[in-house]
Amino acid sequence: MQKNLLPFLQRGSRDYQPVVCVDPDAEQACYVQALTGAHATASTIEDVDLAAIDAAIVAVPPEPSAEIAEQLLQHRIHCFVEKPAGPSTPSLRRLSEVAGKMPDVHLQVGFNFRYAAALRQLHEATVSARESPCWLQIEFCSRHPSAPQWGVDTTVESWIRQNGVHAFDLAQWFIPSPVERVDGHSLPTSDPDRFLAVVGLHHADGSHSMLRVGNQTQRFQVNAAVHASDGSVYAAPSLESVVLSRDAGMPAGTQLFGQKPLDHGWDRSGFGPELEAFVATCLDRSSAQFPGITDALTGSQLCDQALSELKPSSASAATSVA
């Protein structure tokens, strides 16, 4: 919230006006109100005149997230919901059913890395390459969380559902072909709350996604590469660049995109662009595809299957991907 939602609301715009900040912690609600210029604060949704609200940003823990979003949708309020948007696959399935009955109400889930500048460039550059079966590599590592959170029993599950779901979402964004099988292997580490895992996704079209995920790293790492059937490799080795290496007998590449890390992650991580896209869609200014509740549900199902492979004793029951 500190890195994406508050900076966006602080910037201000003629396109929107913060109306009310809702938080059971009155001090926190007043703090956000002071930063955003909202007209009022409230402790619960029930204290808000929902008829005066057009759109809402829901940034709360997973347990109440889906319930709050459902309540707002039933009042025909557009919602941006931070991922994972719910505590479990059944809760997301219910939210998907509610949203499906209101196709004119916008429900976007906060998979911000789809809007990261380098990853969008990589996605656009590989449209033709991904028309044939390909191999996708994604690395997504972050030091936190390093302890169980949100009512789950293990650090592994906390991390997979909070951060690993980003990697699964990116895999489905690059290769939308359904996943038929999930393989997983966790490498041992010296700290029981630190892990490194490799997860393989076998897609119906013959493509394969290999995800390297974990919290064993000292720093945040995101990179991706698409290996095309002609031997070419399109890679985003970081969130600052995209490089094409063609199979021409020489270990040389061409930089397709590059930017210096001067924005403190605003565009590089997609934080600003995803919220700008949400506002544009609410105002009917954009018909671009956005990550929605169906993507969140698919991501959760993949989390279930990966956890059953990585940690059978503590994982949720595996769920097949429809």
Automatic annotation (TrEMBL):
Domain of life of the native organism: Bacteria
GO cellular component, one term: cytoplasm
Molecular function terms, GO-annotated: nucleotide binding; oxidoreductase activity
Keyword Acetylation: no
Limits of the Gfo/Idh/MocA-like oxidoreductase N-terminal domain: 3-110
GO BP of this protein: NADPH regeneration
Signal peptide interval: none
Database matches in InterPro entries: Gfo/Idh/MocA-like_OxRdtase_N, NAD(P)-bd_dom_sf
UniProt keyword list: Oxidoreductase
Family membership: Belongs to the Gfo/Idh/MocA family.
Name of the featured protein: Gfo/Idh/MocA-like oxidoreductase N-terminal domain-containing protein
Organism: Allosaccharopolyspora coralli
